[in-house]
Amino acid sequence: xxxxxxxxxxxxxxxxxxxxxxxxxxxxxxxxxxxxxxxxxxxxxxxxxxxxxxxxxxxxxxxxxxxxxxxxxxxxxxxxxxxxxxxxxxxxxxxxxxxxxxxxxxxxxxxxxxxxxxxxxxxxxxxxxxxxxxxxxxxxxxxxxxxxxxxxxxxxxxxxxxxxxxxxxxxxxxxxxxxxxxxxxxxxxxxxxxxxxxxxxxxxxxxxxxxxxxxxxxxxxxxxxxxxxxxxxxxxxxxxxxxxxxxxxxxxxxxxxxxxxxxxxxxxxxxxxxxxxxxxxxxxxxxxxxxxxxxxxxxxxxxxxxxxxxxxxxxxxxxxxxxxxxxxxxxxxxxxxxxxxxxxxxxxxxxxxxxxxxxxxxxxxxxxxxxxxxxxxxxxxxxxxxxxxxxxxxxxxxxxxxxxxxxxxxxxxxxxxxxxxxxxxxxxxxxxxx
Length: 434
Ligand SMILES: Nc1nc2c(ncn2[C@@H]2O[C@H](COP(=O)(O)OP(=O)(O)OP(=O)(O)O)[C@@H](O)[C@H]2O)c(=O)[nH]1
What we know:
With 434 residues, the chain is an alpha+beta fold. The chain folds into two domains: 29-211, Jelly Rolls; 283-428, Reverse transcriptase/Diguanylate cyclase domain (Alpha-Beta Plaits, 2-Layer Sandwich). It is built from eight helices and 17 strands. The chain has helices at residues 2-26, 162-168, 214-273, 283-300, 314-321, 323-340, 364-380, 403-419; strands at residues 29-34, 41-46, 55-61, 64-71, 80-85, 98-109, 115-121, 136-142, 150-154, 159-160, 182-189, 196-210, 304-311, 346-351, 354-360, 391-397, 425-428. The longest helix has 60 residues, at 214-273. It is rod-shaped. The relative contact order is 0.09. Bound molecules: guanosine-5'-triphosphate (GTP). Guanosine-5'-triphosphate (GTP) is lined by residues 277, 310-316, 318, 323, 326-327, 330, 352-353, 418, 422. Guanosine-5'-triphosphate binds at residues 277, 310-316, 318, 323, 326-327, 330, 352-353, 418, 422. Its EC number is 2.7.7.65. This is diguanylate cyclase. Pfam families: GGDEF.
């Protein structure tokens, strides 16, 4: 699921990048077009200002800007040119946003047929606003007739004229071309000029560039990729956190479930060892602990006694008062007995209305006294439905014998108590015959 959304995201991102690059190549263009119809000031200039004798005329025709000169070698470096004033000298326009300049020009004349194109830049460090000559000369020189019509020149091909640098003694940090504050463009004859008539026709000068610079655009695309990567990583991190917390939650739930199961199984274990009616132990519930007590008798010689108890005429209680009352009597009986016993003693429901009281660390006399105490208590206790309840007791202490013999002797004592008239305690020593 996660890898599917990642590949979808990547696919969208690639599509977005390709479409953006395509759109960038074919749109976002910006241009500055200058021709004879442009609303700028055009002006011819010759070496006359330097003491030369070259003359020039400039006409704006439907065919273009036409500069006609008569070159006279009266000055060391004769020239003629025309200037296009784009703005006031210190309020130039920013040409640096364009990448190329396209010139549509023709040259007519003898000798070298090269022309120079100047982009003149203002900078407060080296420009005197009252002197056009102090505008930086960013120049390129080429032969227009070598090209069928127009020629496109990247702005990065321009250089700062060395004669301008040396004439104005420009510091090193300003040697590089600068197109940020351009107020004048000039088209001039080339450096190797012959005497005689010269004609330069310029149909159009066009600067082309992108509304958003390429570096800014590519940085934007990279930014989108980085943003995608960050968003993806953050969402992945969030998902991992959610997974972790749900795993933790599951572990906690599992732990509490295990705990509940443990409690439940303990409950069942207890239930399996208890008589549900009276809460006394059942035979299974006493087996292990009786075995341990018997071990102690053999190994440590600690006394162990048991009291066998059987309610008298219980069948009659059931018959006269009903089975439910009988049940209640059994419950009350167990409660009364337990109330008189010590902590280590165990009350076992041996079957029906028969109970066994196991008394560890107890001599026969103590057990007999306890039995007598119970017997007396039953006599004076209040019973359900006002019934009268008595009980017979057979008591004995364990000797060097088996558990079976031990219990059988207590049963014998109980039998004796019953046969002697019930509601009494009969105690047998470990060897009753002896
Ligand atoms: N209400 C009730 N009666 C039970 C339960 N277990 C056994 N009994 C009844 O207890 C009675 C025991 O009767 P008997 O064995 O004849 O003994 P008894 O009537 O107490 O007479 P003696 O023991 O000779 O005094 C039977 O009627 C059983 O049905 C029980 O859990 N609840």
